[in-house]
């Protein structure tokens, strides 16, 4: 069954980071992980951190409708997710 990941990259201006994200995602998909599973996001985040982006973070969200549609939503930060006020 086909799965999709919709990715929002916060630090999209850093081309080297984009390449590292693409390589990490490609490698993780070749390992057999499903595109809409949490383990894929976790594997890519680890790959980014190992590739010189120690603060890289991937936010993974899915609603019930997303599960039924077999889609996952990622937000990717190069320097970690910004803190909210008062946190």
Structural notes for this entry:
It is a single chain. With 87 residues, this protein is of the alpha+beta class. Helix content is 40%, strand content 21%. Strands 1-3-2 form a 3-stranded mixed sheet. Helix 1 packs across helix 2. The chain starts with a strand and ends in a 10-residue tail after the last strand. The model has no long low-confidence stretch (mean pLDDT 89).
Overview features:
alpha+beta, three-stranded mixed β-sheet, single chain, 87 residues, 3 helices, globular
The main sheet orders its strands as 1-3-2
Put simply, the count of helices is 3
What is the overall pLDDT average? Answer: 89
Straight-line distance between termini: 40 Å
* Total E-strand runs: 3
Question: Whole-number radius of gyration?
Answer: 13 Å
Question: What profile does the largest beta sheet have?
Answer: 3 strands, mixed
Helix content: 40-55%
SSE order in H/E notation? EHHEHE
Strand and helix layout:
Elements: E1 4-9, H1 15-30, H2 38-50, E2 57-61, H3 64-69, E3 71-77
Parallel strand pairs: 1-3
Antiparallel strand pairs: 2-3
């Amino acid at each position: 069954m086909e799965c999709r990941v919709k990715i929002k990259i916060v630090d999209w201006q850093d081309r080297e980071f984009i390449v590292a994200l693409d390589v990490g995602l490609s490698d993780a998909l070749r390992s057999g992980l499903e595109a809409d599973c949490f383990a894929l996001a976790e594997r890519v985040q680890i790959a980014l951190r190992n590739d010189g982006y120690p603060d890289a973070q991937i936010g993974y969200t899915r609603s019930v409708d997303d599960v039924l549609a077999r889609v996952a939503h990622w937000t990717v930060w190069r320097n970690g997710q910004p803190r909210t006020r008062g946190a």
